[in-house]
Amino acid sequence: MNLYLVQHAEPKRKEEDPQRPLSEKGKADIRKVADFVVKHMGIRVKSIMHSGKLRARQTAEILAEYLNPPEGIKEVEGLEPLADPSIWVNRLIETQEDTMLVGHLPHLMKLSSYLLCQDVNKKIVDFRMGGMVCLSRDESIWSVQWMVIPEIL
């Protein structure tokens, strides 16, 4: 099972727009990442789940344009910036299919740290806005497979 963790792409500054939609750079960045992973990584997911915050939803929408998940995008609980990572740790125990989550820091950092070393306070993955990290589970052991960030594309 693969778990794709995506930090939302760069939003506009709060002073510019309190809703914090994606900036033009953020849109371009997530398009680059989406195009790359479709062409080179063979990702297939049923749906793309996001936190419901505008910047995460817009990131998921752009990813869906490229990945064409059969069930589209879905707003789900437990992906908010300060959400308890154990919510998704427990959901993932039951999951066998590849899953894509679009969320925020510090939640994604804590979730990945828990999965990889059972300690939410250790920074194992250094997320970047618009970046995607692939974790893989073999039996009950998680490992990092790859990471793609806009700056390297």
Rg, rounded, reads 14 Å
Level-1 CATH class name: Alpha Beta
Helix content: 25-40%
Which shape, going by the Cα principal axes?
Answer: globular
> Helix- and strand-based class?
alpha/beta
Number of domains: 1
Count of DSSP-assigned helices: 4
Q: In CATH terms, what is the architecture?
A: 3-Layer(aba) Sandwich
Order of helices and strands: EHEHEHEHEE
**Overall mean pLDDT score?**
97
Largest sheet: 6 strands, mixed
CATH superfamily annotation? Phosphoglycerate mutase-like
Contiguous uncertain segments of 5+ residues: none
Strand order of the largest sheet: 3-2-4-1-5-6
Q: Report the CATH topology name.
A: Rossmann fold
Beta percentage is 15-25%
- Terminus-to-terminus distance: 26 Å
User: Using DSSP, what is the number of strands?
Assistant: 6
Give a topology summary.
Layout: E1 2-7, H1 24-40, E2 48-50, H2 54-67, E3 73-75, H3 86-94, E4 99-103, H4 107-117, E5 132-138, E6 141-148
Helix pairs in contact: 1-2
